[in-house]
Amino acid sequence: MDASEPKHRPLLALGIRLAAIAALATMSALVKLAGERGVHLLEILFWRQFVTIPIALGWVMATGGLAMLRTDRPRTHAKRALYGMVGMILNFGGLLLLPLAEATTMGFTAPIWAVILSTLLLGEKVGVYRWGAVALGFAGVLVIAQPGGGHIPLFGAAAALSGAFMVALISIQIADLNRTDKPLTIVFWFAAISTATTVLALPFVSTSHDAGEWALLIGIGIVGGAGQLLLTSALRVGKVASVIVMDYSSLFWATLYGWTIWNMLPPTSTWVGVPLIVAAGLVIAWREHRLARPSNRDVARVEGT
Fold first, then answer.
1. Sequence spans of domains, the chain
2. Is 264 exposed, middle or buried (0-12, 13-18, 19+ CB in 10 A)?
3. For residue 120, what are the CA distances in angstroms to 52, 116, 117, 125, 303?
4. Per residue in 196-214, is it b (16+ CB within 10 Å) or e — as a string?
5. Exposure check for the chain: N or C terminus, fewer CB within 10 A?
6. 91 Cβ partners below 8 Å, 6+ apart?
7. Please, what is the average pLDDT of the chain?
8. Cα–Cα distance for residue pair 69/261, rounded to 1 Å
9. Rounded distance, CA 128 to CA 126, Å?
10. Mean pLDDT across the stretch 161-173?
11. Contact 94, 160 (CB under 8 A)
């Protein structure tokens, strides 16, 4: 296992992140389809993680052997897995409760939550630009959700927003783990720990499935595992403030899937709110880029700013 600091390659990181977002957007559509067919959320989560394990093991055996999976930080991996499971439950719940485009848009608030976390966890001093971006982003959320009279259930919006918060928190952990462990190591241990945990729920939630439902569950595991590996790899070779801009491409996929599968396009309120949230994320990314110029901050600190 190479424990050396990863070398940043911005263009490669952007390409990897784009591919990761396409895979994860496809997984989101499959999760929503599976939920509509009555598959329990915890069973979806189990198969999402379980299928990743043989994929990761096959890749490991083909490239370097099982020694690649050794880690000196099991407790950190366990903590990352715990947070990851909570985040996936919230994000999958948001997908099941909200239209696909709106659930995706709520996920764009992750950089906004990261600014807040930077003050709480990293002791970062946040200036007027980033606090202004936070206010702008949450104004966009209010426009889309329209509390008290909107087209989306507030419980679903709360789940999706909480899932975005967990994404910001987990990104800090991944950036820290990337300093010592390979992306495949991080993905494998997340899948292994979460699979061992969620399997305990299967006797209580699993049901029989037809061929279509099995195809959805296996597809969720394949594209989800690929997306997770690509996402982790992007954080290893690029700074979060740079690659996170690519995450907004998921709205294209969400709109496309929503239109072609559910014959549903976002209403006007969503199209008004989306630019506010995207603008907030871009301001945060731009400001972090400017702040990072004078000094070489480590990836973990950049992640939380």
1. 10-304
2. middle
3. 33, 7, 5, 10, 13
4. eebeeeeeeeeeebeeebe
5. N
6. 103, 107, 159, 160, 163, 164, 166, 167
7. 85
8. 39
9. 7
10. 89
11. yes
Give the burial class of 23: count Cβ atoms within 10 A of its Cβ; 0-12 exposed, 13-18 middle, 19 or more buried: buried
| Distance, CA of 43 to CA of 204 (rounded, Å) | 10
Q: Are 133 and 115 in contact (CB under 8 A)?
A: yes
Q: If you search the block for the tokens 């939630």, which residue do you land on?
A: 205
Tokens representing 172?
Answer: 């800090």
CA-nearest of 187, 165, 167 to 177 is 187
Burial class of 45 by CB neighbour count within 10 A (0 to 12, 13 to 18, 19+): buried
Paired tokens of 164: 């975005």
Look up tokens 């569950």; give the residue.
217
Look at residues 35, 99, 94 and name the one whose alpha carbon lies nearest to residue 251. 99
Residues 116-162: pLDDT tens digits? 887 877 677 778 888 888 888 889 888 888 776 667 888 999 999 99
Residue labelled with tokens 């954080």:
235
Q: From the centroid of its chain, how far is CA 144?
A: 21
- Position 6 confidence tier, pLDDT thresholds 50, 70, 90: low
3-class DSSP state of 136:
helix
Q: How far apart are CA 10 and CA 302, in angstroms?
A: 14
Distance CA 283, CA 90 (A): 26
Q: Do residues 288 and 305 touch, judged by C-beta distance below 8 A?
A: yes
Find the distance separating the first CA and the last CA of the chain, reported in whole Å: 29
